Amino acid sequence: SRLLPQSNTRQLAMVANALARMLVRDEVLLANLSRELRIKFAKCNTFQASLIANAYARLMVVERTLFGQLLPAYAAKHGSKFRVKDLALVLNAYAKTQLRSTAVFEALSERCREQAEHMDCQALSVIATAHAKVLISDEPLFRALAWRLRTCSRTCTFQAVAGLANAYAKFGFTSVARSPEA
User: N or C: which end of the chain has fewer CB within 10 A?
Assistant: First the structure.
């Protein structure tokens, strides 16, 4: 039988997020939730999709259909709609689960560059660190992040700076920050 067949994607995202916040890893509940998501995931908005990915990653549940099929297809179709927080949550979810989906990272790369001017230091760090953890080098993106860092560096926390430094060092990026268009 299905878990709450009348539930919508918003409700499913809220359940997944609540489980993650409470650190409740109920295998039966998660299996039922995953079954519902397979049916309804295409109806998610970008916030719901990113919240679901983040919740599964926080619970360390590597749901192959979600991370291997649903999210890559969703990112390819709706990548231009992702906001900064959505981008950070999805990319960080892949990093946390140590799944290397070049399809997702490539689909969201252009949007990350477009949204870089709206990112705070924490978002810059999360996105750079996610790329570094799964070893996806994207020099144009890292250039855009470095360009943005010039204007928001005074608000950076030590943790964000450490994450950025580690990510840039991992790929050996040492050039001076230039405009992403350069």
Answer: N
Nearest to 152 by CA among 127, 129, 181, 124: 124
User: pTM for the complete prediction?
Assistant: 0.86
Burial grade of 42 (CB within 10 A; 0-12, 13-18, 19 or more): middle
Helix or strand holding residue 152 (H, E): helix 139-152
- Cα–Cα separations (whole angstroms), residue 4 to 83, 84, 86, 97, 119: 29, 31, 26, 27, 37
Q: pLDDT by residue (tens digit) across 56-82? A: 999 999 999 999 999 999 999 999 999
Distance CA 143, CA 128 (A): 11
What are the φ and ψ backbone dihedral angles of 83, each rounded to 5 degrees? -90, 175
Q: Are 132 and 166 in contact (CB under 8 A)?
A: yes
